[in-house]
């Protein structure tokens, strides 16, 4: 076999696993990305490294929150500067779906699950304090409608930078990757797979013992194209963000302001975040029923966010100060496994109209779990569905450990060891990877 492990997809899950395997000193590992590293969902997130306060509303997601908070603490140490603490204010207005006692309880458990993480615990704050910390909020609304407010801590990141950093750190440890190359065909052979890779009109084949389909929203599309039947149907959840220029906020500066968690009247949560030199606002949630590539933001998502901006925020020339609007697509695996035994050619031509991509849901999307699901639809080929950016390292460690056992090679994972990140070396050799860019989100 040419390779031990081939990873399909250069989003955070793909590169995270590559890094994990490389730190275990497993050789013969390669990653193939059809566009650029992090050009998929991994450069289009809300850029929070967080446990997800609102997931505490679902008792079955507490273990995920706990794991994410543990990872938050670790990433703050490992990636100091690329991941940094972010204070949030959380105002409670008359009529909000979650009353102050519920918020207070949620924050108490959030801190409890985080343990001794180095970030200050949540506190109650006054009207004057909230206006001081988040001067971009609508002061009139605060004065007349706010009934209480809290301050708590989470963390934020440069999502595309982390993915590029992780892949380059893997290369330093002996792994390899290629961009602008697509895995177009996979055939099962004795002891592994034969794989066809297409890059700039050239095709080549190679053999590998294991394949990891870390293709996010494209996971089931890939399986169908490769002639395989998925076990896990998923729902594609589209989220839109608006990035505002610094001038959008007259009162206060990006560097000194705190972020705000806003409860919408329908109970949804949106964030207004000082994000490096700009302001990030989002996200929305709707079901995507088309291909996850080259999607334009839905106009109603923009309207929804702009409406909240006018109600809750005090922005100057908001429309003119929009710097970018972008969408990300989350693959949400559903519990009900499919039981199809024959491949229908219609599914290959129209994967997004197949039973493996659902286009409606009889409950609220927000209630679906953000947990990562790892499935093995055929022996030796694993798929990574769903998940959060924050927990990518833990997911890589889980799959890395499984592969290490199967291959009977490799040491323990070393992704928690700072030396395996080569940060100073990479700052000197490839300073461009530490700069976040909107280019990836244009792909
Ligand atoms: C709107 C939104 C906001 C979010 N905010 C947060 C947040 O604040 N914090 C957090 O922790 N999580 C957040 N998430 C979740 C997080 O962003 C995702 O879980 C994560 O980025 C998914 O990474 P991935 O590697 O699975 O997929 P992707 O990043 O989409 O990567 C998959 C890659 O596979 C490639 N690919 C597909 N098929 C092939 C093929 N055949 N050959 C080669 N390459 C292929 C694609 O080009 C793509 O680059 C958010 C998600 C969304 C949608």
Task: Provide an overview of this structure.
This protein is an alpha/beta fold. It folds into two domains: 3-43 and 160-233 and 334-442, FAD/NAD(P)-binding domain (3-Layer(bba) Sandwich); 84-155 and 236-331, D-Amino Acid Oxidase, subunit A, domain 2 (D-Amino Acid Oxidase, Chain A, domain 2, 2-Layer Sandwich), CATH 3.30.9. The chain is built from eleven helices and 19 strands. The protein has helices spanning 12-23, 62-78, 100-114, 127-133, 139-145, 159-172, 219-225, 299-312, 345-349, 392-407, 423-429; strands at 3-8, 29-32, 48-49, 83-93, 123-125, 146-157, 176-178, 181-189, 192-199, 202-213, 234-244, 259-263, 269-275, 278-282, 286-287, 322-333, 357-358, 372-378, 381-386. The strands form two sheets. Strands 3, 4, 5, 6, 11, 12, 13, 14, 15, 16 and 17 form an eleven-stranded mixed sheet that branches. Strands 1, 2, 7, 8, 9, 10, 18 and 19 form an eight-stranded mixed sheet that branches. A hairpin with a 2-residue loop joins strand 18 and strand 19. Helix 1 runs parallel beside helix 6 and helix 1 (12-23) packs across helix 10. The longest helix has 17 residues, at 62-78. The chain is globular and about 70 Å long. The two termini are 33 Å apart. The mean pLDDT is 95. Bound molecules: flavin-adenine dinucleotide (FAD). Residues 8-14, 32-35, 39-42, 45-48, 182-183, 214-218, 222, 239, 283, 328-330, 384, 387-390 line the site of flavin-adenine dinucleotide.
Structural class: alpha/beta
Q: Counting H and I runs of at least 4 residues, what is the number of helices?
A: 11
Rg of Cα set = 22 Å
As for the number of domains, it is 2
Bound compounds: flavin-adenine dinucleotide
The largest sheet, given as strand count, sense and whether it forms a barrel, is: 11 strands, mixed
Query: What is the first-to-last residue Cα distance?
Result: 33 Å
**Uncertain residue segments:** none
In terms of DSSP E residues, the strand content is: 25-35%
CATH topology of the largest domain: FAD/NAD(P)-binding domain
**What general outline do the C-alpha atoms trace?**
globular
Helicity level: 25-40%
- CATH class type of the largest domain: Alpha Beta
Query: What's the rounded overall pLDDT mean?
Result: 95
Return the string of H and E elements.
EHEEHEHEHHEHEEEEHEEEEEHEHEEEHH
What is the number of strand segments? 19
Q: Provide the CATH architecture of the largest domain.
A: 3-Layer(bba) Sandwich
């Amino acid at each position: 076999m040419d390779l031990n492990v081939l990873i399909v997809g250069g989003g955070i899950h793909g590169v995270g696993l590559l890094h994990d395997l490389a730190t275990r000193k497993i050789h013969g590992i390669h990653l193939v990305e059809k566009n650029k590293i992090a050009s998929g969902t991994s450069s289009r997130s809300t850029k929070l490294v967080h446990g997800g306060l609102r997931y505490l509303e679902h008792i079955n997601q507490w273990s995920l929150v706990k794991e994410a908070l543990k990872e938050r603490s670790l990433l703050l140490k490992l990636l100091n500067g690329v991941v940094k603490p972010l204070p949030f204010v959380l105002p409670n207005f008359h009529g909000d779906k979650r009353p102050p006692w519920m918020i207070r309880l949620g924050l108490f458990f959030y801190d409890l699950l985080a343990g001794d993480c180095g970030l200050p615990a949540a506190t109650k704050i006054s009207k004057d304090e909230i206006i001081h910390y988040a001067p971009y909020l609508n002061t009139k609304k605060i004065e007349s409608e706010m009934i209480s407010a809290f301050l708590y801590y989470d963390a934020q990141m440069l999502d595309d930078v982390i993915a590029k950093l992780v892949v380059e750190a893997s290369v330093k440890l002996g792994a390899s990757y290629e961009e602008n190359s697509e895995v177009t065909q996979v055939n099962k052979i004795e002891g592994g797979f034969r794989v066809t890779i297409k890059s700039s009109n050239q095709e080549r084949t190679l053999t590998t013992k294991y394949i990891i389909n870390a293709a996010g929203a494209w996971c089931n599309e890939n399986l169908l194209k490769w002639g395989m039947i998925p076990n896990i149907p998923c729902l594609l959840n589209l989220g839109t963000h608006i990035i505002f220029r610094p001038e959008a906020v007259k009162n206060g500066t990006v560097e000194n302001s705190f972020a705000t968690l806003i409860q919408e009247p329908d109970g949804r949560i949106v964030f207004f975040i000082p994000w490096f030199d700009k302001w990030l606002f989002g996200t929305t949630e709707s079901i995507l029923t088309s291909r996850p590539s080259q999607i334009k933001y839905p106009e109603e998502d923009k309207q929804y966010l702009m409406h909240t901006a006018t109600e809750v925020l005090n922005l100057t020339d908001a429309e003119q100060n929009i710097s970018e609007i972008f969408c990300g697509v989350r693959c949400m695996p559903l519990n009900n496994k499919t039981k199809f035994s024959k491949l229908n050619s219609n599914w290959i031509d129209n994967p997004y109209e197949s039973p493996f991509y659902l286009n409606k849901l009889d409950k609220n999307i927000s209630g679906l779990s953000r947990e990562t699901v790892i499935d093995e639809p055929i022996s030796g080929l694993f798929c990574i569905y769903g998940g959060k950016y924050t927990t990518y390292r833990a997911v890589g460690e889980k799959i890395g450990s499984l592969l290490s056992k199967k291959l009977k090679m490799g040491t323990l994972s070393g992704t928690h060891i700072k030396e395996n990140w080569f940060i100073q070396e990479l700052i000197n050799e490839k300073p461009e990877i530490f700069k976040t860019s909107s280019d990836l989100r244009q792909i």
